[in-house]
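Whether sequence alone determines local backbone shape is best considered at the level of individual chains. When preparing material for the folding task, we compiled for one chain both its residues and its backbone structure tokens. The sequence in question and its structure tokens are set out directly beneath this paragraph.
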Amino acid sequence: MGVLALAGLAALATERRFRFIDWHFLAFCMILPAAYMWNMMITGWETDILDRPIHLFAGFLIYCLIGRIGLHRNTLFYAALLGAFTALGIAVYEGVYLGNARVFGLGNRWNAVPFGNFSLIVGFFCVAAAGLVPRGLEAPAPRRLHLLLSFAGVVAGLTASLLSGTRGGWVAIPLLVLLCVFLNDQLSRRSRGLALIVILGVVTVFFSTSDRMHSRVSEAQAQITQFIAAPDDPKSHAAPVGVRLGMWYWGIKKFMEHPLTGMGLSAYEEERKAAVDSGELPPDFIGYANLHNEIITSLALGGLPSALAVIAFWIIGWRFFHAHLKAGNQEEHYFALCGLLVLVGTAVFAMTEGLFGTSPGTKALVLCLAVPAGAIRYCERMRTAPVCSGSAEQQPAT
């Protein structure tokens, strides 16, 4: 990722002019780091806190690089297909062969939560390409193979996500299905209905046959009931869901104490330690980088301005990608749909996690946003660039 960012910096340095699309994506990438810096200017400076949010600026540099050299739609599709089946292989090895309850990636290179969530995302990158025919596959047989690979990719991603034991991503599945089916303008009404039935059927089968899933859902329901009955009882915070509910309850109280600035990003570690020492929250809380809900974390740590910045992040991102769905270009449409899948998926994930909760998750988020956004930039440049008489349209390098 660092190499790509450096190459993007070189591309940025030689850029002749900034277009509106560039300012739009820059605002999207910088609004959260700016909110972090604003809060620390008021409540106290701690540079380490910026480490993960500033990855978004690296994402802008990668966007500049892809926007310069271009990216074929089928390159992203086959990369997503490879990613989905790689995730499936890891999940089967760790979750089935080794019998682990959670899948953390080979050698614990990932956390189970981002592993499951982004396995889901790359799987939906595959099915988003259903109906979009790559170059050279115009004949019926190759088209059917492409459609088969699209659905195989989403099944692989779904399976990897479910085997990871991550519950937060399950809520996003219906929304991602709807995006893929109803924002794919290359699918006929019949194909959309068939795609909806197939994907929802696969999801239903997984939900109805997985004992592990039933067990985790039942556990969550019991823990929620226990917390509602006694929110201040330390026993209600003993289990994973209870810990989350306890953190949200604590975070909302902290926001009410300081609605404009929160407790301060730089004060979080000290406040967290005090809550554990006093018995207000269980010892497990000491290892959590956030409150496992991006909105509540922003309210508690940075107050109302930080929470508004998070909401603006999603709105600006939605407007960026949604604006390119109707560009009349299959490539641009696919990249825009992928960007929307990432935005909607991570918005849902962030309701039980954080945008920057882990280093692997942060890097995956940045890459999954920057690559399709950069490809959109390239498509727009080619669409709006003056074409010289007798010259061929420039093709992406990758």
In short: The mean pLDDT is 82.
